[in-house]
Amino acid sequence: MTWDVLDIMGAIAFGINGTLVASEENYDLLGAYILGFTTAFGGGVIRNLLLGVSVEGIWIQKSLFIIAFVSITFTFFFPHKWKHHFKHSAVFFDAVGLAAFAIQGANYAVSIDAPVIAVVTAAVLTGAGGGIVRDLLAGRKPVIFYSEIYALWAALAGLFIGLDWISGPYVVTVLFIALIILRLASIYYKWTLPHYFSAQKRNGFY
Predict the structure, then answer these.
(1) DSSP code, position 197
(2) Which one, 11, 31, 167, 187, has least CB within 10 Å?
């Protein structure tokens, strides 16, 4: 699974996901494009800034912007009578984008000889950074901080790649599929990390 494939899958998945969120918030076409592009490329921009790498490489990916543009446009103009069925796919597209960009971000950090902690950070930011900005622009609490386990899966992918436990296209493909399954399982089974107030209640502080 090459970088190009991961980039394309991530751009399509996050472009669609951002547009579906815009649709839920009743945003207009411009709002859909902003949320779609932000979700697809925001994580990469934040990652490059924190790694001290030029963000110029993000803006010269003309083909990816075209792919994201087509995905956003198609999703926005999808027939309304069927769109409510399409919205249920938002979670799946988000899981695909998370998996694709987490692996891509980790591989990018490894390519510039970044330390393991930077590889993990790059995986999390590339996989979830765009979603954080998307939620803020949509007036929502970023799902990464409170909902079903999200960024943890990206962090684990970054750790495995940073420690060189993942090598070869077949193993990367297995990791990609595993991340999607784990993210979807987190939602289906409502897996969450411990919450501060929940812990206090269990300990009798309330």
Answers:
(1) H
(2) 167
